[in-house]
Amino acid sequence: MEQLVARLDAHGICSSANAWDLFIAADRLGSMGLWLTAHMTYAKNVYLDGRTMTPEDFKVVPEGHTGGALNIVPAYVGYLLANALTGTTRAWLMGQGHCVAAIDAVNVLIRNLEPEQDAHYPLSDAGLSRLCQDFYSYEIGADGRPVAPLGSHVNVFTAGGISEGGYLGFAGLQYVHMPLPGQELVSFLSDGAFEEQRGSDWAARWWRGEDTGLVMPIMIANGRRIDQRTTMSQSGGVHWFRDHLTLNGFEPIDIDGRDPAAFAWAILSMAERLREQHEAIRAGSSQYPVLLPYAIAETVKGFGFPGAGTNAAHNLPLPGSPALDAGSRESFIAGASRLHVPPAELQRAVSTLCTHAQQTRVREKDHCLRKLEVAAPVLPVPREIVVGATVAPMAAIDEWFCEMAKQNPGHRIRVGNPDEMRSNRMNKTLDLLKHRVTAPEDGIAESLHGSVITALNEEAVVSAALANKQGISLAVSYEAFAVKMLGAMRQEVIFARHTLETGRASQWLSVPVLVSSHTWENGKNEQSHQDPTLCEAWLGEMADVAPVYFPFDANTAVAVVRSLYGQRGKVATVVAAKNVGPVRCSVAQAEQAVRDGAIVLQHDETAQVQLLALGSYQVSAALAAADILRQRGVGCSVVAIIEPGRLRIPRDEREVAYVHSDAAIAALIPAVQDRVVISHTHAEVMTGVLRRLDTGSATTVFLGYRNRGGTLDVAGMQFANGQDADQIVAAVVRLPGIPSSAENAR
What we know:
The chain is α/β, with parallel strands linked by helices. 41% of the residues lie in helices and 13% in strands. It contains 30 helices and 20 strands. The strands form five sheets. The protein has a six-stranded parallel sheet with strand order 10-7-11-12-14-13, sandwiched between helices. Strand 13, helix 22 (554-565) and strand 14 form a beta-alpha-beta unit. Helix 2 (16-42) packs antiparallel against helix 13 and helix 3 crosses helix 12 (260-283). The longest helix has 27 residues, at 16-42. The chain is globular. The N and C termini lie far apart (90 Å).
């Protein structure tokens, strides 16, 4: 620590006297942060003067993730200290979002708050009491939303928060892909989450100083999860983890996880070490991969408060409710008194640490990853693929995306690839952008600075795309395995939706997740590869931030992807065929179809039945069935639905603004009483999503994936699942409005 202070002084960054004052201030703030965090779990009334509390001052039913939150307090205060010592506001990320009480408690004390929390929680007895009362209050408003600007996990009201952190492990996959050069990111990670999600081991292999800022990962090693010790703790603890990090290209650094000063030292030391390694690489005296510095902050769960180190520390470290149990109340009072800092002393500490005006830097709530500034990309004009040509939709996307990458050199590109790009016809993109590796193989599309993050781990590669919020991102996967991406995708759109609901804007460019080699064209790989779960699950999310698209030809596929990159804050599932198929509409028609969410491909003035298809193979089958029906004297209407979410029943006011009105649907889709819907998905899913198009159980039939498959070609898959042209015709002739003569006509 003395060496750090001397170094800061020698470089004119921070005088020794000021540095030691900052260390003292951080110690005081950290102590009071622990005090308030414990109060958030147990207290109903808060007294800044530290008076002895009575039973009436406590919640009858306490709640909180107390132990982990207490462990985050010194980490977050250490982050603030590092910023004050160097005059740099770094970004922060926390994987254990359930520990948010620590962040909120410290932010309230230093007044680093979003407007909603600033108004609700002044630094007074009343303000802090309201903070504690709101924590897990479960109060709900008439609009069905929580009343308090406070949550059990990181949310949009958390000053500086960028991820909910509810899905344990994803922060460990994402941090290395987040900052741009010149930016710095401190990531608080969890030893419990380490065993939850694999893939974080590869971070050192991905980091390149040429396109990525400094990253400082810090593992909070408290040795416990909910019910027992972590697997790491059972396997040898920190000693085992240190060896594991070394084997995987990290440079482990041990620190005292109880001391804010230790965290500040680690942050500054790791940044300096990583910077030195990059400079050595640029000078030619070293090479990638770097030894990525990684701090292990060893502590006990719930340090600083009674019950630390026990299983109970995870949630409620005291044996009972202080409102009802005298022993628990005495333990709380004794523990809190050891942590309490008098108001005047606290204010001096806060004033010492809050150096933003003097250092002309932004508050931590406005760090670079919270306040994104992303330039609009150049969107190339699509090449006109003539109607009647035979082109693979994925190949058309590949060509367009490749051109987009060339025209946007100022945007960092990340393509998440679970080793399937060539199989999915993204050849030009791969040849241009290349796999990112540390030792390129001759004759393979690999590069030290490649933009394609390839690993046989869907969660890891989609996280690379989702984390790249300051650039252009894409993920490509087999449909069946893309379902493993669901949690990471969902965490992003939840946060994005909450951002919009509070009147804020999502600034990151939308991310298409291309799912191909899909259910209907992957028969050679058996039924495990025939799974539409991702698009079905994604249809359950809110349509305005989580759209699902079913482009049916090359031009609509390009139009969908191009449209998405012109929008912000969305993660879209795009189901696109990799096999060649006929182009059915012009570029202009395709763009209009994407704007509308559907297009009428054929419509007879005397249409007796309407075939509504979702998916390229479904559209082909519907058109073939329509030809047969016309030969039997049945007039037909054929509609291709590209974005079914635009046609759904809206679930809140934002979806009301996004989906089509009844009048718009009537103008877009001709009214025909008898309908057959042919869907890429299971029929039951689309029956719900397209409820507004359902004219009744007798007059509308839904055909979908029936869980039939195996080693089959496309025609076999369609036959097995009742979706070939003949079976569509059979479904039509059973409808009440179809003359019986159509059944027997040949």
